[in-house]
Amino acid sequence: xxFCSHCGAPVTQKIPAGDNLPRHVCEQCDLxxxxxxxxVAGCIAEWEGQILLCRRxxxxxxxxxxxxxGFMEIGESTEQAAxxxxxxxxxADVAITSLYAVLSLPHIGQVYLxxxxxxxxxxxxxxxxxLEVKLFPLSAIPWDxxxxxxxxxxxxRYAADVRRGQFQLHLASLSDRI
Length: 178
Ligand SMILES: [Zn+2]
Known about the structure:
By secondary structure, the protein is an alpha+beta fold. Helices cover 16% and strands 37% of the residues. Its cofactor is Mg(2+).
């Protein structure tokens, strides 16, 4: 950040009084510009033992697979965001059934909230951000063509829970090494 979004004056990096981290501070209007993690809401949409995956039509990771996920918007709840992303990317309707995983990515300042959602019908197609949308049995998940490590991690946990016959809430922090 170079300029104050409030008054347009140049900002400087310094540790404000009473704080312990450097922030972008406006010397003119004294506004402190905090930069905090963003929430990504995702949905593992289920239909008769299969899950819905999308092949990305946009960078980054164009052509690779993910479950529907994206940044939350102001004015919606986390589960509404997960259902909206499923509608946008896969044109599928889901009833969100539970929170499945909270996965922190400290190195890029993101937190993934992954939900399970029951598809209301086996109706789906590629939204504008997807090349292709498909229901996969767990035995056919394209593990080598996953768009993001966090997506692969969440689906691996999901597949293990299905094999075990018991779902649990997963809480984990992923490094940039996986
Ligand atoms: Zn300012």
